[in-house]
Structure formats: C-alpha cells, structure tokens
Amino acid sequence: MYPELCRFIARLPQAPVATARLAVLNNLAAYIRAEAAVGRAVNVNFICTHNSRRSQLAQVWAQTAACFYGIRANSYSGGVAVTAFDERAVAALSGVGFKISKKDSHANPRYEIRFASDAPPILAWSKLYDDPANPRNGFAAVMTCAGADENCPFIPGAGVRIPLRYDDPKEFDGTAREAAMYAARSQQIAAEMFYVFALINKK
Fold this sequence. Notes:
This protein is of the alpha/beta class. It has helices at residues 3-11, 22-37, 54-68, 87-94, 146-151, 178-200; strands at residues 43-47, 74-78, 99-102, 111-114, 122-124, 139-143, 158-163.
C-alpha cells in the first residue's frame, strides 16, 4: 500500500471503536467469516440513500481493509437514488493517501481509487443498490444511513441485512468545519472496517 496511506492505517488504533457499535460490527464480521469458511464469495454492499458519501467511504475502506488483511472479499455500494460521489468525500480519501483519478466530467463522474500500485483500482460512482455492477444475490446489505435503513426494510437477494448507520457529514457543507467533519467520518468508517476485517483472522 502507498506509504502515506500505511501511516494513516497505523494510527487507526488511536481512534477506538465505540463500545455501543461493537455488536453490529461483530455481526458483520461473523457473516464474512461464515461465508469465507464454506468457500462462498464474500460480497458486501453498503447502501445509503444517495450513494454519495457514507456508503462510498465504507466501500473504499472495506475493500482496503480486506486487502490489508489478505481476505478475499468484494466491496460494493449503492443507493435508492442516483446523485454523485460527493467531491468532499473524495477529498477526504485523497487526503489520507489514496490516489484518485476522475475518469470523466459527467454530472455523476466515475472515479478510480487506488490504495496500492499492485492492486486493481476501486471503481466508484453513484448508482442504485441493485445496479448491474453490484451482486444480485448472496451479499451482506449494510445500511449506512437512517433513510435507507428505514425506507428499505427488505433488500432482495441479501443474505443478511445489517444496520450500520453513520452521521452525515453533509450537515457541515459550506461551514468552517466541513473538511474536518468529512475527515472525521472517513476516519470513523476506516477504524470500523479495519476492526471488522481484523476479526476475520482471529480464532
């Protein structure tokens, strides 16, 4: 992995996971471990209303954590409406060492996000949770916002549905705290995804 990103990851233990969130994170880890144990593909789809911030950050950090721990897992994201991957969230990832390139200039651009020079990029853009790019069956549906969690009680094809809500950094858009709050949310999600994937290798 890129050196700057490795340094950020090394500091994650200094941002401990909140005790109140451990149970749901343990459930996600248990699902991943069980799927891997029987040789099934491990697929995790992070779902938020607009697929613009929290679900995108979760997809990127989960895929990065899986690679870091040598776990074969595929991370996806989607929403119930299509908008765009918010540039503030993109900047939060770039700021900790991901190498990101925008592939077009459309209203909903596609990004290639790299965490290492020898690994394929993570492809990111806003899309519906059942977009053809995402798995249709046998995946964990991780609901990262209250809106999607409450309005989508049933996700077709999901093997498990896990509510893992995050506060929306959008609340700080246009304020002096904007960049800091996007960075803080990204760090929280990173710490939790690394906690989950670290558990997979524990006996």
